[in-house]
């Protein structure tokens, strides 16, 4: 059982519950002695189990002597922000992504494209700096356009058309880029984090700052996504907000699992099966 299977189980739970109304959340659902909160308590049981799983996986890693690097900790925060951005899009239809909230303001699709495009830029600066410095050269200080083109060509046939098109292909590109960032940058050393790097600013900034921009920029525009949803009359519902908490807990498990070198099938399998089963229970109860 892989960590992806656990994520798939959370996605399954989300598909069954993302459209639930408050009256549906009020319908009876019982877990042991807890019988007063209705279906919404199924969300909290899922949240509690994922939080506990994250603690258990991380504890096992610590007992083995595994310790996260500074780069890994920065990427943990980025991954949590990335999950938060995607959960802010739960429950939306394709037409919602095109609605302009006010004259001169961006629709949701444009906000998402901006987040992804900025991540491509951050990725290009970091990867190109590391490539050249690790080969013994000085940090690149000049035109990064060729490097940016190499990155985009390696991930999309026509990046410009992709970014101006429908939201789902952009989000699919984002998922691929996100995995690449986690995979390639988790091995950055403490010394490399202090390497100066050049982008559009007048002065250099260390790679530690660049790595942190993935999270902070994503958080900034996740707030914009929320405000845009409200402005177009599609604010997140209670069930969608609860799912956001569940995805935040999933991010904790995923972060802990990256620290765990040995297999953790004995922990992930029962958790994934339990969430799948709960999703079926909730679907039968609420519908």
Rg, nearest Å = 21 Å
**Number of E-state strands:** 2
At the third CATH level, what is the topology name of the largest domain?
Four Helix Bundle (Hemerythrin (Met), subunit A)
User: Helical element count?
Assistant: 12
Helix and strand succession?
HHHHHHHHHEEHHH
- Uncertain runs are none
- Please state the average pLDDT score: 93
CATH superfamily of the largest domain: dinb family like domain
How far do the termini sit from each other? 30 Å
Structural class by SSE content? mainly alpha
How many domains? The number is 2
Beta fraction: under 5%
Into which percent range does the helicity of residues fall?
A: 55-70%
The CATH class name of the largest domain reads Mainly Alpha
| CATH architecture verdict of the largest domain | Up-down Bundle
Biggest sheet: strands side by side, in what order?
1-2
Reported for the largest beta sheet, the result is:
2 strands, antiparallel
Overall geometry comes to globular
């Amino acid at each position: 059982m892989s960590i992806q299977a656990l994520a798939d189980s959370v996605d399954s739970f989300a598909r069954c519950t993302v459209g639930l109304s408050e009256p549906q959340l009020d319908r009876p659902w019982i877990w042991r002695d807890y019988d007063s909160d209705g279906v919404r308590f199924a969300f909290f049981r899922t949240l509690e189990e994922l939080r506990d799983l994250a603690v258990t996986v991380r504890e096992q890693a610590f007992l083995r002597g595994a310790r996260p690097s500074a780069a890994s900790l920065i990427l943990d925060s980025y991954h949590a922000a990335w999950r938060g951005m995607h959960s802010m899009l739960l429950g939306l239809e394709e037409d919602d992504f095109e609605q302009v909230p006010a004259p001169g303001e961006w629709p949701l699709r444009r906000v998402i494209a901006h987040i992804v495009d900025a991540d491509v830029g951050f990725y290009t600066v970091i990867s190109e700096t590391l490539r050249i410095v690790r080969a013994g050269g000085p940090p690149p200080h000049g035109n990064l356009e060729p490097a940016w083109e190499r990155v985009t060509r390696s991930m999309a046939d026509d990046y410009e058309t992709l970014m101006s098109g429908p939201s789902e292909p952009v989000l699919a590109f984002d998922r691929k880029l996100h995995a690449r960032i986690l995979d390639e940058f988790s091995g950055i050393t403490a010394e490399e984090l202090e390497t100066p790097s050049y982008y559009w600013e007048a002065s250099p900034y260390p790679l530690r700052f660049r790595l942190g921009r993935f999270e902070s920029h994503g958080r900034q525009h996740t707030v914009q996504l929320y405000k845009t949803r409200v402005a177009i009359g599609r604010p997140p519902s209670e069930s969608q907000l609860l799912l956001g908490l569940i995805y935040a807990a999933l991010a904790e498990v995923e972060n802990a699992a990256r620290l765990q070198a040995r297999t953790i099938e004995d922990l992930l399998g029962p958790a994934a099966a339990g969430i799948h089963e709960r999703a079926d229970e909730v679907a039968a109860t609420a519908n």
